[in-house]
Amino acid sequence: MNICEDIRAYKPYNVQEEKDKQTILAFLERYDDAFLRSNELAHMTASAWVTNKQHDKILMCYHHIYDSWSWLGGHCDGEKDCLKVAIREVEEEAGLKEVIPISKDIFSLEVLSVDSHYKKGNYVPTHLHLNVTYLLQADDSEALSIKEDENSAVSWFGIDEAVMMSSEKWFRDNIYSKLNSKLKEGYYENN
C-alpha cells in the first residue's frame, strides 16, 4: 500500500481526524510536491508517539523552535514511506538504536500550523504540516542523546505527565491527550 491508500483506509478517531484526513488527501491529490519542504504552503511530515514496552511512559524532546516538550518527528523530504520517516526521526532526535512500530498502521492524522521562524539562519514562512503519526516502541533503559540543532533535552515521562510537560495548549488538549487516550484504549489493536 502507498501512503494515500493508507490514509484513505484510516478510520478517524474523532472529528479533528476526520476533517484533517480530508484536507491531507485533497492536498496530496492536488500537489505533486506535497512531500517536499519546497512547497511552502504545506508539506508532509511524520511523527511518533513513542512508548515503552509497558506502555506507561512516553518519550518527549525539548524542541528549540517550539520552546516546548513535544513528540518526535520531522519532514518527509521526498520520502513517501511515512513510517520510515517517523522511525528515522526518533532515532536521530533521541539517539535510540532500536525503535519498532507497535503497528505499521497509521495511529493518528493531524494538520498542524507552524508559525514563521528562522532555522539555520533562514526564514521559514508560516505553513502547515500534513502529519501522519505512528505508535512506536523503544526501550526506556537505552541511553538517550540530543540532536543539538533541533532539541536540547530528551526524556521519558509518565504517560499523563508527558502531556502536561508541553507548554503548547493546543497540542496538550487536542493532540497529546488524544494520543494517550488511544494508547490507553488499545486503539492500535482494533484498527
Any overview of this molecule?
The chain is an alpha+beta fold. The protein has a single domain (3-190), classed as Alpha-Beta Complex (Nucleoside Triphosphate Pyrophosphohydrolase). Helices cover 34% and strands 31% of the residues.
Give the helices and strands, then pairings.
Layout: H1 3-9, H2 15-30, E1 42-51, E2 57-63, E3 68-70, E4 72-75, H3 82-94, E5 99-101, E6 108-114, E7 117-119, E8 122-124, E9 127-138, E10 151-158, H4 159-165, H5 169-185, H6 187-190
Parallel strand pairs: 1-9
Antiparallel strand pairs: 1-4, 2-3, 2-10, 5-9, 6-9, 7-8
Helix pairs in contact: 4-5
Distinct helical segment count: 6
CA distance, first residue to last residue = 16 Å
Order of helices and strands: HHEEEEHEEEEEEHHH
Provide the gyration radius in Å: 15 Å
**Can you give the mean pLDDT?**
95
Taking pLDDT < 50 over at least 5 consecutive residues as the criterion, the unreliable ranges are: none
- What's the CATH first level? Alpha Beta
- Which fold name fills CATH's third level, the topology? Nucleoside Triphosphate Pyrophosphohydrolase
Provide the number of structural domains. Answer: 1
> What structural class do the secondary elements suggest?
alpha+beta
**CATH architecture field:** Alpha-Beta Complex
CATH superfamily: Nucleoside Triphosphate Pyrophosphohydrolase
Biggest sheet record: 5 strands, mixed
Oligomer: single chain
Q: Beta-strand percentage?
A: 25-35%
Extended strand count? 10
Q: Helix content range of the residues, please?
A: 25-40%
Shape: globular
